[in-house]
Queue: 3 jobs
Job 1
Amino acid sequence: MRHGTLPYKILNDLNRRRLQFFRTAQVGEAFGSSQSVSRALRKLVEEGKIEAVTRGVYRILTGEPPVLAFDRAWSNPGAVFSPEKSIAVTLARPTFQDVARLCRAYGVERVRKVLISLSADGDIPKRLELEWQHRLNNIQQGFRDAAARQFAH
């Protein structure tokens, strides 16, 4: 994303306000028409900067590698991996806390895509994929509930 573009300006504004969840309406008219803001938000979703929680409600993704309970890449301690590689290594030996941390940092859908890919490639058993699909649904519902609580005030 290039500096000066509408998605970049919106993301900077959201980060400056330190919002965890936000509504489309909170982005404000300062950024133009509702159509241009909606297009910018879709672009931010595509780029993995924000994640849709419910209709018109989004969550800002940190994108920062989370601190996990233990280093699963024991043969290469302290190595820095791409988000997809970190997710894959964690899903090979998952704990709920660590998967939830990955979802908070990178988004539930990104974790789900890696899970489906691992299962399709035969790297994890289908049974494990189905179990974690259910858990990812629960994590996603937790984000929805947290957003609902924030906006209930």
Job 2
Amino acid sequence: MARRPRHSVAPVVVDLFAGAGGLSLGFQQAGYRVALGVDSLQAATRTYEANLAGAKALCCDVRKLSGKDILTLVGGEVHALIGGPSCQGFSTSGGLSRERGRDLFDPRNSLFTDYMRLVRELRPAWVLFENVPGMLLYHHGAVASTIITDFLEIGYEVAPIILLAADYGVPQLRRRLFFIGNRTSQPIFAPAATHGSSTLWRNYALPFAHLSRVGHTTTGDTEPHVTFDSACDDLPALAEAEAIDGVPYPREPSSAFQREMRQNSSSLRQHMAFRLSANDRLAARLLKPGENWRSLSPETLPRRFRSIRPYDATTMLRRLTGDRPAYTITTKFNEATTGAFIHPRDNRTLSVREAARLQSFPDEFLFLGSDSEIRFQVGNAVPPMLGRALAEALLPLIAHDVAGAALQPLRASIQLDYATQREMIGLRGARKHTKDYRRDTGQPGLYDGALAANDPAA
């Protein structure tokens, strides 16, 4: 994989709900020792173990996993516990609803309690909990309030932050929510943006800008966002359902991003496109770069889009443009009707390698499994470049806590103010909903009254 700098100390990391290993790869690239990745999808753990040198992969249900099991597999102390449970129950992909359309009883909504149970059992110095920004909106903020409260009850101070992947060199407008924290009383930092665009959200119908707390503005210290072409225009054209695998690159890289993606890779792998539905094929033939379903005539518009308001679903059935980052890559990047997945020039949706590049996976990273399992792994991953930015921002702090080491900062960072962060997500108003949330879901706080923050047994 890409760079693995050597430091005087390499904190030990365990990744829960690890998927293919995007977050783990970012931490490994930053110089941590990633010891173990856990996921319930067998294809994902095969991918993980094949690509993350020195890391073990365990395929199991986290609900059946104990801290003792993890310590046995790792062979020592865990310094940082990272990971993101399945997030579809909190996703706002259908809109920015706070509650409507969400299932309070969706079992995926409670997986974070198992992450926190393992935090209590393992007592790592640092934690990093990743999810979708919709978690902050869900049930009037009660979920976020519950998470912070439960962390506090076992002795961890955490701060939430929403980061835009494009602000860290990823060619994709993807937001992720991170709860970052520790039990060592160290300040908490997030990486400062390295890329940005002051006009990114101009003319957008939905109020995206209020969700992000870092980036979105250019200064003299930030570079422009990496565009689709800067990420992918060295890859050869493909026809629908065509695949290219194991052949030399047809041209030299044209950007720094492409050069980084091609490090340690001598041939092009998994550049394979998918067969389209009739609706997708028609859209791919008719739409120009930047156009979406609104540009189609009523007689060619798929029936499901005819009742949508013109200012809604603006990224659905959309052709990308080469001079901007891509939109969020999902597990259905092969289906044009589900998102902005039509190639800027070819009459097809994105290939596996293009989607992986847009997620910032290097070309040497190969995904194992069926076509649908591969798409699932790519679409659900945390972009490795985003993970690396977080890992680098935290490394000096974690190294000091676990080994007393004094490392120089690896990148510019921003200290998070706990009080300000909590106010941002409306925790004062959310607290009155937390009790109702726990009552309605039948899930009382994992540590309500059971532990004091200074309980040595914890």
Job 3
Amino acid sequence: MEPTSPNTLIAFAAKAGSTASDGDGKNSPFTAALVKHLPKPGLDLRRAFGFARDDVLKATNNRQEPYVYGSLGGDDVALVPAPTVVTPPVTSASDPDLAIRRAYEFAERVGTRAVWDSFIKNYPFGFYTDLARAQRDKVGADMPSVALAEKSKASADEQKRLAPEEVKTAEAERARIASQAKSEGDTTIVADKAKLGQLAALAPPQQPGDAISKSSATDIPRLLLAELLRVGCHTSAIDGIWNTAAQRSLGLFNKNAGTKFDVKAASFDALDAVRSKTERICPLICEHGYKADGESCTKINCRAGYGVGDDNTCEKVETKKPNRKPSSNPKSQRAASESAAAKPAESGQILCNQGGCRPVKRGCRLPNYIYGNSVREICN
């Protein structure tokens, strides 16, 4: 049979010249195979007839082989369409917290306390939740600073509105209070800040440095060194002089606290930062032979036969026997030579002269006569 239209497929139960088996069941082997494979959803007809061919060959012990004839295109042709599968969004296996991380990034862009509260409510547990709580607390801690800045700005605006005569009067009053504070000898930083608050209410300073009185400015190094000593970053005496040792102490504080204060001069900002630390910042450094014990250094005691090594640990000490130096006494040298000569050589002969006594060398002997004033060995 020849196809009369395109996209036509003709399937034969057996090849030309052979007979198709009817089988022993309700359907023939070929029909049973078609019923099994053709209704499969999404299965192309060519593959379905190929599976049917394999089943027929198996059922008839290779006596019957179906054949397919026709012409189809490259697209799959299925009698039953494949079901539509909704693919869920793919989450990267390497980042299981992708959704919460993106939500955290959006909340960080806004940065308000209300947004952080909403994030914590939706994600009550996890690492990003801890970060969100820290960001929320940070926003709350910054609020007083913002209010103080706004208050300072309002005070500056009010100063601009004052008449020139009122400004002069306020400046004169400010100078009077500063002179009175100096005459009273009140140089503590607390009193200075209190008085400066009164002066600022009268006439705010035009320069940032005017906010520090002369007595406070000269006292900052001593106060800063005292605080550096408290947190373990300064070990020298507190003399109120900002020298190289003081600069090194502030540098140690910067290194261990993560700050970047200028070590060349003592400042109020550095003093406030050091005062905010309630615990030791710089580690306790002890000399060789001592170890850190709380806030002090204690001597390292080793048991008998052990001493403190280069790495400050107890190591076994090797005792060396003293080297005995030869005596310079001629009598002692002669006694030692005679003692050594007391051990006879194989020949049994001893040679003695002004330098002492010694065994006759191996292979040598002493004659029965004397050469001049000395005795000589005869060897070989």
